[in-house]
DNA sequence: CGACAGAGTCGAAGCGCTTCGACAACCTAT
DNA sequence: ATAGGTTGTCGAAGCGCTTCGACTCTGTCG
């Protein structure tokens, strides 16, 4: 293993000079800099991470806490995680992958040990038990998702309230009056996951304003669960002509079942989905949808975090405005029978 | 920040004693151990990761290199990544998430800096450019996936060759003679990704042995791509009655299209999928499938790696035997017309 | 009863890096 | 010419931990 000292000797300078060449914290003459860089190349030197962390009190690692559960939206989570890892690298950070398993203890462990300089938390609940810890430490953090109380926190999220409103508006504009919402799995609501509840709020309040009837049903996803849910919906609200789907794994089942029941999309029934574009365009009907901007969320989270680490950032809530793309799954409501 | 020295002082012992309590590398009397543990509790002490890494030359971090691309099987990747992170924690390791982006440089960086003690690589190509580096370093590593030459490497994977064979056997046993394989996206084959090619080999050689006609077509996934592919298949081999699908995002499109064409599953056409159980059970037809044991692969990879780190492990290739679960998508071949 | 083996503890020497203060050499403005 | 500033470099002091050798007790065996 090559050390700083060896590089210094090889270049004929002191260790501290090499260090300053590396960090750029003091000015170095052209000649010296080049000689040192040459030696680094030739010896294949890599600074030792542990020593650097110890001496500088900075690990250059960002911890990313992903949810352990798999009842929710896995592809999006993965996309965010990869976006986080990729943008972190461009800022000189590596990413430590923590699962939700340890819960608050993981926060304590990482904070206490100096393993990471900062954290990004995903899968935030409205009243998340990790939040008090984050508020109580001086370690910078960013949430992907929105808790109930954001004071003293930095958050990034799609504006799910506006997303819900947007879906309803689109359907209302097309003349739909009875709208069913196929939501996430019940467990997601039981945990009070921020995005699910906020979407629902947006859907509800805008429906009220527009005078629409809204029926919300959580759904596990998959054909069997969707079949049961759909039957109940039409049982309770036979005039339903608009659907908003938030559970990715319910999308295809819904389309299949509607087809099977002889309800044409979009002639008889319109469907709006909240899902990544890839899902919307690969479904059996090209779906009108509000995209979940996973990449953007990951990138923004890292950038806010880096700003905080560099001392510039401040607490703020960054809500990404939803965009609805009209595709082939929505159309005018059928004439009232 | 609480340090070892403060704990030592609080407990009235020397720093080294506290260290030995923590590591258990020397015997400590009951009384002392309890006093120290008490102090650790009271002060909320967490060992500093950097200092520990520097002194012990062990970071207790495993690097996990995931593919950056998203043209392949994202949910499985995520499941493996989470399984790796979870089992790593049970062995006292944290996981550093590296994307494939940096390629071989990431290996060099991590190895050189002592950031991680070991690596797990996913998305291995048959002739992966990272392999020479792994062979040339003394840093332990495990591949999830199988390259062409496994000498000097430790690998974990589903036995995709046997998987292919198993699928074909199942269909052959039911009397199918003309079988179409809906494969991964073309790009996956162009990269010579191990698992895709091995599955194909298994399918082909067993088909030959059993005297079946096999037609392989890569497919991007999604309805449109699947529609084109399917049309070509029936064009070229009108008597096709058996399908093997390896691309998760082609599964539902295939089922939908077959239905649309009036081909009943499993009466007219049988379908075997290679996919996680969740997909198989949530599809519109409950699919006969060979499961991809993501959890098991992740866990095994970590266990092999930990064994190597502890000095016990040896190079070996661990192939997990495939298991085919019969569900509702396969049945006897229809009588020949 | 003296020698000897553990068991239990401590002190000190690093691990490889960053960073602070010091200093020499040079330049500028009086 | 002199005081004062810049620029570039160095030495040394840690950062918080692990680990080695040394030391002091006990208890045990011939």
Protein described:
The structure is a homodimer of 337-residue chains. With 337 residues, chain A is an alpha/beta fold. The first copy, chain A, has three domains: 44 residues, lambda repressor-like DNA-binding domains (434 Repressor (Amino-terminal Domain), Orthogonal Bundle), CATH 1.10.260.40; 125 residues, Rossmann fold (3-Layer(aba) Sandwich); 134 residues, 3-Layer(aba) Sandwich (Rossmann fold). Helices cover 47% and strands 15% of the residues of chain A. Chain A is built from 14 helices and twelve strands. In chain A, the strands form two sheets. A six-stranded parallel beta sheet of chain A has the order 2-1-3-4-5-11, with helices on both faces. Chain A has a six-stranded mixed beta sheet with strand order 7-6-8-9-10-12. In chain A, strand 3, helix 7 and strand 4 form a beta-alpha-beta unit. In chain A, helix 1 crosses helix 3. Chain A is elongated and about 90 Å long. The model of chain A has no long low-confidence stretch (mean pLDDT 93). Chains A and B meet through helix 4, strand 1, helix 5, strand 2 and helix 6 of A and helix 4, strand 1, helix 5, strand 2 and helix 6 of B. Strand 2 of chain A pairs antiparallel with strand 2 of chain B, so a sheet runs across the interface. The first copy, chain A, binds a DNA duplex (30 and 30 nucleotides) through helix 2 and helix 4.
Short description:
The first copy, chain A, has 337 residues and is an alpha/beta fold. Chain A is built from 14 helices and 12 strands. The model of chain A has no long low-confidence stretch (mean pLDDT 93).
């Amino acid at each position: 293993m090559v050390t700083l000292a060896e590089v210094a000797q090889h270049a004929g300078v002191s260790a501290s000079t090499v260090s300053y060449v590396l960090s750029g914290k003091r000015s170095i003459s052209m000649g010296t800099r080049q000689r040192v860089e040459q030696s680094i190349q030739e010896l294949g030197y890599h600074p030792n991470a542990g020593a650097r962390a110890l001496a500088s009190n900075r690990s250059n690692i960002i911890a990313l806490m992903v949810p352990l559960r798999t009842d929710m939206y896995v592809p999006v989570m993965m996309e965010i995680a990869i976006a986080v890892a990729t943008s972190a690298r461009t800022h000189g950070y590596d990413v430590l992958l923590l699962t939700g398993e340890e819960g608050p203890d993981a926060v304590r462990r990482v904070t206490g040990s100096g393993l990471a300089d900062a954290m990004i938390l995903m899968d935030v609940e409205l009243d998340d038990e990790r939040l008090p810890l984050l508020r109580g430490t001086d370690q910078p953090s960013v949430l992907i998702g929105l808790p109930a109380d954001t004071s003293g926190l930095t958050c990034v999220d799609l504006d799910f309230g506006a997303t819900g409103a947007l879906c309803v508006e689109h359907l209302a504009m097309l003349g739909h009056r009875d709208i069913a919402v196929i939501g996430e799995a019940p467990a997601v609501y039981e945990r009070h996951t921020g995005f699910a509840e906020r979407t629902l709020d947006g859907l509800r309040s805008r429906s009220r304003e527009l005078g629409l009837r809204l029926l919300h049903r959580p759904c596990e996803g998959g054909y069997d669960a969707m079949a049961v849910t759909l039957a109940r919906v039409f049982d309770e609200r036979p005039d339903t002509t608009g659907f908003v789907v938030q559970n990715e794994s319910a999308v295809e089942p819904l389309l299949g079942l509607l087809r099977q029941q002889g309800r044409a999309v979009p002639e008889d029934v319109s469907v709006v989905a909240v899902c990544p574009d890839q899902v919307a365009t690969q479904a059996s009907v090209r779906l009108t949808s509000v995209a979940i901007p996973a990449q953007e969320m990951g990138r923004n989270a890292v950038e806010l975090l880096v700003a905080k680490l560099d001392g510039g950032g401040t607490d703020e809530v960054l809500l990404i405005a939803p965009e609805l793309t009209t595709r082939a799954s929505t159309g005018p409501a059928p004439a009232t029978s």
